[in-house]
Amino acid sequence: MIKVLRSTAFFLSLLTFATTSFAADKAKPDKDGWTYLFDKNMTQWTTYLGIPRAETKVTGIPKDEKGNYTQAVGFNKDERGVFTTSIVDGEPVLHVTGEIYGSVHTKQEFENYHLVVQFKWGTQKWPPRLTEPLDTGILYHVIGDHGVDYWKAWALSQEFQIMEHNTGDWWQIAGSQIDIRCEKTPAETVPVYNPKAPLVSYGPGGAGITCMRGKDAEKPNGEWNTLELITFGDKSLHIVNGQVVMALSNSRYTKDGKVIPLTKGKILLQSEAGEAFFKGVKIKPIKGIPAEYQSYF
């Protein structure tokens, strides 16, 4: 009997080692230097959900006398299935329903990298965006507490906007600041990126909270889009389906009157009242802005 138990324990230890090694291999760079960040169980990511709408049934969160929730759902609690992952054609695909504002974000911080994200739209929308374009986004250089932005769902960061026909915009999140070559045009109410325009400071104390992408490079709904974020030091590029739609520089924030560079942090995918799918998320370190993009700065 003792021998049987020892044999069983030995077998289980081998199985544990094999499983651990397999999981670790998932996070190792491939021969081209890319590290894939998705697996079926999203082991490299954490969820955070903000304050639900009053009509959304979520257990364990108090409400006030008017029936409104008074607290965020918080970390790694997702009974509504806002974020679910399935294997499609052998590849992990993340489904984001958008029902509650929040995120799935990396456990690890990153700096000086090239990120690739594939996404496509679903069809479902939720209040308060039932009549607005589908919306989600990539937040980068994410630091500090979650739930400190205007929707009480995200953390201080820069946003690579993903919104129908506005994919590649920049938005201020929780006080971030950045410089963009952006200008007003007769056709738009919001300033638009133009690589020949003067640099404009955005964020608190600057020109505003957003600058639109320079062109609409998005594919029709239902098709997969490839987004690339290249960031090195205080500079970054938003690339949509191979086309540069924005270049940004001097990434920073101000705290207690002191300007602080914002050049590294976690990576976050938003839930923002619109259904979306993500796959093929991969990252590799870089030693500088690639030569073919240096002219944008």
From TrEMBL:
Gene3D superfamilies per record: Exo-inulinase, domain 1
Occurrences of domain 3-keto-alpha-glucoside-1,2-lyase/3-keto-2-hydroxy-glucal hydratase (ranges): 33-284
Record keyword tRNA-binding present: no
Keywords: Signal
Superkingdom as given in the UniProt entry: Bacteria
Residues annotated as signal peptide: 1-23
One protein family per Pfam: 3keto-disac_hyd
Stored InterPro entries: AL/BT2_dom (IPR010496)
Name of the protein this chain belongs to: 3-keto-alpha-glucoside-1,2-lyase/3-keto-2-hydroxy-glucal hydratase domain-containing protein
UniProt source species: Cellvibrio zantedeschiae
